[in-house]
Design a protein that fits this description.
alpha/beta, Rossmann fold, seven-stranded mixed sheet, 7 strands, about 20% strand
Length: about 240
C-alpha cells in the first residue's frame, strides 16, 4: 500500500496509527496482491487503491460510530478481509470473527492472520444464513459489520441474527442509500432492529462519501430468521 496516503488519511480521521499497525497493513497488502494472482480476491491491487479503497474505507466506521466500545465484532461476508481485518489491526482490544462462504478465501485470511500475528481474529467458513442459526454465533456479538454488496433488506437478514440485543449492526453502503434503507425498514423491524443513525462519512484521500447505516438490536430475532438464501433473495424482490 501507499504508506504516505494511508498516514495522511488517518490524520484526516484524527486517528493515530503505530509503526506496528502500519507494518501489518503493508504485509497484508503484499499478501493480498500475491494471492490475487492465483485467485480472484479483489479488482483493486494498486498501492494507492489499497490504501484508500480497502484500508481507509475499512477503518472509517471506527471513527464515525461506537464500534470502539464493542468487545466482540463479526464481519459477515468478509471476502478478502474487508472491513474486518483492517479494523482488527486498529482495534487490538476487541475480538473479531470473520465469516465467508468460500473456503479458499478463508484459507487466505488464515494465512494473513498467522503472518501478522493477529491474536484477536478468528476466521470461519460458512454461509451467513446457516451460521446465523448456529448457537455458537447467533446473538453473540456486540457489533456486526458488513461491506457486502447486497441491498439492505437482504443484508439485514444475514447480519442482524448475529447481533446481541443492545448491540449494533453497521452496514457500509454507497452514498445516497436512503431509498434502499426505506425499503428495508419493515424487515429491519421484523428482525428486532431499529435504525439508529445514518452517518454520511467522507472517505479521506478521495471524493467518495460512505453511508454508514447503524442499526440497534432492540429485541431478539425470531427463530425462523435467517431463512434460506433463496427465500431471502426472493422476498427482497417483492
Amino acid at each position: 500500500m501507499n504508506e504516505k496516503i494511508f498516514a495522511e488519511g488517518m490524520k484526516c480521521l484524527k486517528a493515530e496509527v503505530s509503526p506496528c499497525q502500519t507494518e501489518r497493513l503493508c504485509e497484508y497488502s503484499r499478501l493480498l496482491v500475491e494471492w490475487n494472482e492465483k485467485m480472484n480476491l479483489t479488482a483493486v491491487t494498486d498501492p494507492d487503491g489499497i490504501a484508500v479503497k480497502h484500508f481507509l474505507d475499512s477503518v472509517l466506521p471506527i471513527y464515525n460510530t461506537k464500534l470502539k466500545d464493542c468487545g466482540s465484532v463479526a464481519d459477515v461476508g468478509t471476502g478478502a478481509g474487508f472491513p474486518g481485518l483492517p479494523m482488527a489491526i486498529m482495534m487490538p482490544q476487541s475480538e473479531f470473527t470473520l465469516i465467508d462462504s468460500l473456503n479458499k478465501r478463508v484459507k487466505f485470511l488464515n494465512t494473513v492472520v498467522e503472518a501478522l500475528g493477529l491474536n484477536n481474529v478468528k476466521c470461519f467458513h460458512g454461509r451467513a444464513e446457516e451460521l446465523g442459526r448456529n448457537p455458537d454465533f447467533r446473538e453473540r456479538f456486540d457489533a456486526v459489520v458488513s461491506r457486502a454488496v447486497a441491498n439492505m433488506t437482504v443484508l439485514s437478514e444475514y447480519c442482524l441474527p448475529y447481533v446481541k440485543v443492545g448491540g449494533i449492526f453497521v452496514a457500509l453502503k454507497a452514498d445516497n442509500s436512503e431509498e434502499e434503507l426505506e425499503a428495508a425498514r419493515p424487515m429491519i423491524g421484523t428482525l428486532g432492529g431499529t435504525v439508529e443513525d445514518v452517518v454520511h462519512a467522507p472517505l479521506p484521500m478521495s471524493d467518495i462519501t460512505r453511508d454508514l447505516i447503524i442499526i440497534r438490536k432492540t429485541k431478539p430475532t425470531a427463530e425462523k430468521f435467517p431463512r434460506r438464501a433463496d427465500k431471502i433473495k426472493k422476498s427482497a424482490k417483492k
